[in-house]
Amino acid sequence: MRNRLLRLVIFVVVALAYSLPAAAQVYFPPALGGRSPEAKAAAAAAPKPAYDPHDLSGIWMGTGNQGGRPTNTLLGAAPPPPMTAWGQEQFNAHKPSRPEADESRKVPPALGNDPLGKCDPLGYPRNLGTFELITTPTKIVQMFQEGLRIREIWTDGRKIPDDVDPRWYGWAVGHWEGDAFVVDSKGYDGRTWLNGNGLPHSEDMKLHEVYRHPDAMTLEITITLDDPTAYTKPWVGRTQTFHLLLPKDRSELYEAYCVPSEEESFNERLRDPAGGLVSKGNK
Questions:
Q1: What digits encode the pLDDT tens for the residues 67-88?
Q2: With 0-12 CB in 10 A as exposed, 13-18 as middle and 19+ as buried, what is 198?
Q3: Beta-bridge partner residues of 60
Q4: Burial class (CB in 10 A: 0-12, 13-18, 19+), 253
Q5: In whole angstroms, what is the distance from residue 234 CA to residue 211 CA?
Q6: How many CB atoms within 10 Å of residue 14?
């Protein structure tokens, strides 16, 4: 389904490039094949926006999303601390099949149990790839290209209650400390994986993030993960760098949904038979 989606996206981008007037064109972030020549030309010609260290708005793309080859960008590729017995048990039970998974753990997609295979939300921070930040008076909305799902970061001074129910993208609050935007969050649904290799987390996971905007084109994010149920000590991440897509006022996230009905059909017709499984549609 994802390959079919990418082919559709590339077709739509090319069609838009040739059908819309130049003044009305919109420019999408790269799919696996990269940006169109028109989008690259528009980005090269676009002026850099005025620099404001507190203006985080725009579409930001991480360096691990270029070139079509997934890389380990979780917490800036900082090595994880040792797992607890519970964490190791969860890790062993996860059967990944994504390209970024370790070869020693990878299984055919039909035999895997990655939540992505059922179109479950990726959750956070796994979904931290290409995203848009939208600022309002009371919150910053983080919209992810994968599924166009959103994460709300409240900036109105509220605190996260102790008894929150877990959500796919957690509960987050943020505030400014000088030119650093500091975000604390918790209440993440334990069904999500941290990455495509199946690293686990529990519902006790808390994240501490620091966003810095050192120049008009750069956003830096550093994440510390604290989950005593899954890991024996806090996991201190390395700084991840994201670049602003230009033109800022015309770039858009393309629609990249995982549709359950399409995924189920694809599994029955191709993925399950390839893994040696017989499904209802292939009996």
A1: 444 456 899 999 999 999 999 9
A2: buried
A3: 131, 244
A4: middle
A5: 19
A6: 13
Handedness of CA 246, 247, 249, 253 (dihedral sign): negative
Contact 2, 145 (CB under 8 A): no
48: left (phi over 0), alpha (psi -120 to 50) or beta: beta
Rg of the chain taking only CA atoms, in angstroms = 20
pTM over 0.85: no
Q: Which helix (H) or strand (E) holds 224?
A: strand 218-226
CA–CA gap between residue 179 and residue 168 (Å, rounded): 29
Tell me the backbone φ, ψ of residue 110, rounded to 5 degrees: -65, -20
- Exposure of 121 by Cβ count < 10 A (0-12 exposed, 13-18 middle, 19+ buried)? buried
Length of the chain, please?
A: 283
**Number of CB atoms found within 10 A of residue 241's CB:** 15
Helix (H) or strand (E) holding 170: none
Dist. CA 130–CA 13, nearest whole Å? 17
The Cβ-side half-sphere exposure at 23, using a 13 Å CA radius, reads: 0
Tens-digit pLDDT profile for residues 239-282 = 999 999 999 989 999 888 888 877 677 667 766 676 666 655 55
Residues 6+ apart with CB under 8 A from 128: 62, 73, 144, 221, 240
Short-list 273, 192, 259, CA closest to 2: 259
DSSP state of 33: T
Give me 224's structure tokens. 């510390």
Give the pair of three-digit tokens for residue 72: 């380990």
Cis peptide before 79 (omega within 30 of 0): no
| Domain coordinates in residue numbering, the chain | 49-262
